[in-house]
Amino acid sequence: MTEGYARLLRALLPGIVAKLSRIEDPRDQRRIEHSLPLLMLFGILMFLSHCTSRRAANRELARSSLLSLVEEFVPGAKDMPHADTLARLLCAIDVEAIDRYYEELLRDFIKSKPFQELNPGRFLVAIDGTQKFSRRYQWDVGALNRSVGDGDKERHYVYVLESILILDNGMALPLLTEILENEESVATVQEKAGTTAGGEHAQKQDCETKAFHRLAQRLEKLLGKGCVNVVLDGIYASGPVISRCQNNGWGYMIVLKKDCLKTVWEEFNGLQRIETNNVLLAQWGQRWQEYRWINEIEYTYGKNYKRLTVNVVTCTETWVEQCPRSGKEPKTMETEYAWLSSSHLTPDNVFETCTKIARSRWRIENNFLVEKHQGYQYSHCYSYNWEAMKGFHYLMKFGIFLNVFITHSEAAIMYARIEGIQGYVKRIWESLRQGKWLTADNTEKTDSAVRGRLRIRFPKLKMTV
Fold first, then answer.
1. Tens digits of residue pLDDT in 61-84
2. Any bridge partners for residue 2, and if so which?
3. Extended strands (E) in 247-352
4. N or C: which end of the chain has fewer CB within 10 A?
5. 3.40.50.720, 3.40.50.300, 3.40.50.880, 3.90.350.10: which CATH number matches 112-372?
6. Separation of alpha carbons 254 and 131, rounded Å
7. Could you tell me if 342 and 245 are in contact, meaning their C-beta atoms sit under 8 angstroms apart?
């Protein structure tokens, strides 16, 4: 199991370390003990091995038994670095360069043959925001703030807009990230520099919808136009977001809440009495569904009264809830879903559009659960320096990408299914901390010739509806 993991790391990590080595190092090179590539590798290994904090990384990674692993990717490493050294480095370098090289990694992967086999059609992307962590005091001017309770208490927090790429074989790979941060006014910056007599600290509060447009612009450059389907939460059911998707040529399924876009709901309810044939009854597993839809509903928004055409579909779902633990009688449950759709809905495509595309949005919620509670400590700040905090977050994405990539490959998926992904990673790193890293010199399976012929394959997941 460890040998298979080692072979995959040998195929993936050298290119990543080479990319991160291009970042400019502002430190005095005559006085440093640990090079920038070594510290970047240490940061990735922190999240690969599910270290819970910097202190845990010092306890679990900074040991001589892992030196043979590190030397294979950073030749000449004499000892393991300290996590505080990495934190100080992230305070000084351009951490956005880490995110740019992650984007470059994604671009290379999307062009690769294994990805083309996994995803021969359109890209399915889920976008949503989540809180990283919060404090009762303002530790940095970049942190967002909100009132809680009766309004007299204030919380300062970090909020992140994430996107993931959903593949048919079960993989959910992290894509691009937008970290929301406040922008200080010119007066505040001048006051800090001592050029003004003082005044209030004016800040421009960032928000999730602003971050969406920044993220969409970057995703367009990465994935292109006309080949993307996005699934979004109800907060994005607005004219500007729909216009952005339409201008990019993206398909979309956006959750539509009852108290949102009232004119669209009024027209939908009125047209339902006329277009009575737009109904489909279906069974999905043990659930019975009734779909109703209306195409080409006009929606006007903004000061310039810009017009859009949207399609709306609702799904009323009924099932029998069994209560074996409580011993209560089974009861019939019912819920209703609604979406804005870019597709012209018909009886032939409405079921697949809602079940295969729209319901894929839960994958990003599950992804947040994994990142926060199953090994990656997403809610841990790792540093109260704003730039260092972002740097650790970007390094975490490398670690998540590698673990998802490896655990879904043919070489590891059997072990991951037996142990569970979190248990698999734990078993691997228990073995590596004992010094059981097989170097390329003592195994024929991992020599340069075999590594050159190594092709990473992924099993195909059979989808059944």
1. 887 788 888 888 998 888 889 999
2. none
3. 251-255, 279-284, 287-301, 306-321, 331-341
4. C
5. 3.90.350.10
6. 21
7. yes
Rounded CA gap, 44 and 73, in Å?
12
CA-CA distance, 362 to 364, in Å (whole number)?
A: 5
Mean pLDDT of the chain: 85
Where residue 420 falls (left for φ over 0; alpha for ψ -120 to 50; beta otherwise) is left
Strands (E) in 304-446, as ranges, are 306-321, 331-341
Cα–Cα nearest to 272, from 299, 257, 298, 293: 293
The token duo for 436 is 């059981």
What φ, ψ does residue 201 adopt, rounded to 5°? -85, 95
**Is 38 in contact with 77 (CB distance < 8 Å)?**
yes
Taking only the tens place, the pLDDT of each residue in 278-297 is: 999 999 888 999 999 999 99
How far apart CA 235 and CA 260 sit, in angstroms, is 9
Residues sharing a CB contact under 8 Å with residue 390, sequence separation 6 or more, in sequence order: 95, 96, 179
Long-range Cβ contact pairs of 29-34 (< 8 A, separation 24 or more): 33/81, 34/77, 34/81, 34/85
Q: What is the mean pLDDT of residues 163-172?
A: 88
Which sign, positive or negative, has the C-alpha torsion 97, 102, 107, 112? positive
